[in-house]
């Protein structure tokens, strides 16, 4: 579905061009949930922006369904961490969710909005303004807006990074259900190791400078996953350990970003 071959990205820095990503090679299969991890500044957001055609690569090739990515491909939708600035405060929840499908006729648009709101559990709040909702609900509105477009690929950049632990866990489970229901291919950037292992079919860790894929790991934990039972499994703990090690943590060291 998505293929990244020998990708490199160079960006302007204070002292001249800086090579951020180099030789990045990976693929994401249709319907797969792949998380991208890496320490702060390793290039996760840059990689996601390039995959979504929001930023150009300096070298290499990216394809989506076999077609070269040179701008945002049809059916590839990005969800950002910053829900507050992604929603239009003067539009109701319903009209925010409809934002990406305004060209459709009204009955199709209404049906898709209803479906997307139901998937994120916000059917009852469709007439409200986003600023009246909690942070978790606002992020669900942003996800519903993406889902209403029926994306082939959902690119998510730390979508739950600003939420408290309980809200985050509940949105992770909702996203799991949505992924299962829709079969959407998801690339998910996070710095949260537990979140990545819990949600993913596979995860990749960016490392080095310039960064490339330092570790690619299958996550064969059974689905549906459960916040308590899955996280108590020995294989979950082993995967978590392996990822922390790849990120440079040592046993007994406190987690850092
Ligand atoms: N527009 C830009 N111009 C120049 N350098 C940039 C630009 N955007 C990002 N960078 C640099 O690219 C590097 C990677 O940034 P990026 O945001 O992709 O990392 P990240 O892994 O997502 O970080 P974080 O986890 O902190 O969000 C950083 O050194 C950053 O300073």
UniProtKB/TrEMBL annotation:
Keyword Cell membrane assigned: yes
PROSITE patterns in the cross-refs: ABC_TRANSPORTER_1, ABC_TRANSPORTER_2
Locations listed in the record: Cell membrane
Bilayer topology term: Peripheral membrane protein
Pfam families reported in the protein's UniProt record: ABC_tran
Gene Ontology terms for molecular function: ATP binding
Secretion signal span: none
Origin superkingdom: Bacteria
Main location per the UniProt record: membrane
Sequence ranges assigned to domain ABC transporter in this UniProt record: 2-233
InterPro entries per the UniProt record, alphabetical: AAA+_ATPase, ABC_transporter-like_ATP-bd, ABC_transporter-like_CS, ABC_transporter_ATP-bind, P-loop_NTPase
Keyword line: ATP-binding, Cell membrane, Membrane, Nucleotide-binding, Transport
Annotated PANTHER family: NITRATE ABC TRANSPORTER ATP-BINDING PROTEIN, TAURINE IMPORT ATP-BINDING PROTEIN-RELATED
Name by which UniProt lists this protein: ABC transporter ATP-binding protein
């Amino acid at each position: 579905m998505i293929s990244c071959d020998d990708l490199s990205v160079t960006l302007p820095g204070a002292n001249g061009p800086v090579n951020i990503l180099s030789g990045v090679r990976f693929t994401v299969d249709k319907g797969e949930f792949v998380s991208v991890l890496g320490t702060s500044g390793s290039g996760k957001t840059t990689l996601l922006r390039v995959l979504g055609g929001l930023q150009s690569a300096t070298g290499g090739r990216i394809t989506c369904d076999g077609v070269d990515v040179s701008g945002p491909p049809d059916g590839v939708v990005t969800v950002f961490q910053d829900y507050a600035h992604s929603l239009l405060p003067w539009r109701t929840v319903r009209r925010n969710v409809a934002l990406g499908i305004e060209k459709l006729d009204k009955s199709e648009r209404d049906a898709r909005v209803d479906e997307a709101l139901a998937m994120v559990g916000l059917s009852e709040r469709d007439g409200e303004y986003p600023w009246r909702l909690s942070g978790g609900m606002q992020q669900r509105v942003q996800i519903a807006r993406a889902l209403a477009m029926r994306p082939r690929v959902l690119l998510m950049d730390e979508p739950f990074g600003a939420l408290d632990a309980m809200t985050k866990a509940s949105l992770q489970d909702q996203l799991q259900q949505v992924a299962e229901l829709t079969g959407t291919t998801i690339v998910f950037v996070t710095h949260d190791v537990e979140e990545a292992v819990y949600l993913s079919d596979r995860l990749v860790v960016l490392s080095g400078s310039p960064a490339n894929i330092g570790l690619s790991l299958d996550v064969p934990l059974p689905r549906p996953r459960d916040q308590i039972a899955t996280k108590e499994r020995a294989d979950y703990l082993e995967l978590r350990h392996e990822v922390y090690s790849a990120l440079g943590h040592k046993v007994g060291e406190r987690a850092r970003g």
